[in-house]
Design brief:
The protein is built from 14 helices and twelve strands. It has 377 residues and is α/β, with parallel strands linked by helices. The chain has a domain of 212 residues: Spore Coat Polysaccharide Biosynthesis Protein SpsA, Chain A. The protein has a seven-stranded mixed β-sheet, sandwiched between helices.
């Protein structure tokens, strides 16, 4: 009953938070958002346990699970490296290790990396490419910054490529959070700061009876459309899942906690699949009765960049999806992004011809080239 009532007030609450961001980000506002999320998206261990079977059926469930594990071993396979592990990784202790499996799109990925390094949080990267150009890009980035590492492996199945990336990250680094990032998904420095700070507070409260979240994730994000072939005029779209269809959070920007990753052996992708790769990690959290904490774009925006290059889900696919709520956000979004992104990343997004050489591999762009929009550069 309370859940149904809370759902009806969600649109009103979102509108109020957009008009009064100061109130929304205050202690009272954050507490109210957390309470509503808990009602609409039950995520604490107590809530998840409501759906667990009784003691009698749990015995049968355990026996079925053990049989499944024996027949699903191939889902945990990792790929063979086609290059050495690149990067020195001198300091392996960090707040967040970011994992990205990619192919091409080097200029945009370099900006994704640069934005994360502008965060006050301690971050490390594991990049997983597949081509010779990808390997050259990883080497270039690793030589410029010791926080960046990576390797190459076969591109298919994509689930295996992603799982190999994650497995290497959890083996190499001593981390608090393991974050999944797409090569066209920019996590704002503000978001990384927010999540690292929020997790530090949660970790301090564990011994006082507080629940440690298993994951921090998003149900809403921004889409920045840079495509020149699109007939659609909006430049920035605020995108969120409709409540009745939000059975999984957004795949990008999932921050899995160290405790959860240790509990599942770092296995969060299905190595046999090429689509719906990230369902497995979230399903494991549900099965364990784990706690889920959602963040909003006011906490720090996550930007999905769409343009004239190969993508699993293009901009038109977003417009046609009946599971998504889309709001034109260009004017308000500009102000939010100016506040949340580094100035270099904001200028990068605003200058659309930065995306032009996406598939020109004669020179590997790193995103660190001189900025024509900066006087004197």
């Amino acid at each position: 009953m309370l859940s149904r009532i809370a759902r009806k007030f969600v649109p009103f609450g979102r509108g109020l938070s957009r008009r009064m961001p100061g109130l929304a980000n205050s202690s009272l506002g954050r507490a109210a958002k957390a309470a509503v999320r808990e009602l609409v998206f039950p995520s604490t261990q107590t809530a998840w346990r409501r759906s667990l079977p009784s003691n009698k059926s749990s015995v049968e469930e355990i026996s079925q699970t053990s049989v499944k594990k024996q027949s699903w071993r191939h889902k945990d396979r990792v790929a063979k490296f086609t290059s050495e592990f690149i990067g020195q990784a001198v300091d392996r202790t960090c707040d967040i290790v970011l994992c990205c499996a990619f192919s091409g799109r080097h200029r945009l990925l370099a900006r994704v990396i640069a934005e994360s390094l502008a965060s006050a949080a301690s971050v490390r990267w594991v990049l997983t490419g597949s081509t010779d150009e990808d390997e050259q890009f990883i080497r270039t980035m690793a030589e410029r910054d010791s926080r960046i590492t990576g390797f190459t492996c076969p591109n298919r199945p994509l689930g295996q490529k992603w799982q190999t990336c994650v497995r290497k990250a959890v083996e190499v680094f001593d981390y608090d959070l393991c974050c999944i990032v797409g090569s066209d998904d920019i996590l704002s420095a503000k978001l990384l700061d927010t999540i690292a700070h929020r997790h530090a507070i949660a970790a301090e409260g564990v011994g006082k009876g507080e629940h440690m979240p298993s994951i921090y994730c998003a149900l809403e994000w921004l889409v920045w459309n840079m495509g020149t072939r699109s007939n659609h005029s909006p430049n920035i779209i605020r995108c969120s899942y409709r409540l009745q269809s939000a059975f999984q959070p957004l795949g990008a920007g999932r921050f899995y906690t160290r405790r959860f990753m240790d509990s599942c052996g770092g296995t969060i992708f299905d190595s046999t699949l090429d689509r719906l790769l990230d369902d497995r990690g979230f399903q494991r959290i549900i099965d364990q009765g784990g706690s889920v904490e959602y963040f909003s774009i006011e906490d720090g925006p996550l930007i999905s960049v769409k343009g004239d290059w190969g993508q699993m889900n293009g901009f038109d696919a977003f417009l046609e999806a009946d599971t998504l709520q889309l709001d034109e956000f260009s004017f308000a979004g500009q102000a939010l992004l100016r506040e949340s992104l580094s100035s270099a990343t904001f200028r990068f997004l605003a200058k659309q011809d930065r995306m032009a050489p996406q598939f020109n591999f004669s020179k590997i762009p790193t995103g660190a080239e001189p900025d024509e929009s900066t006087p004197g550069s």
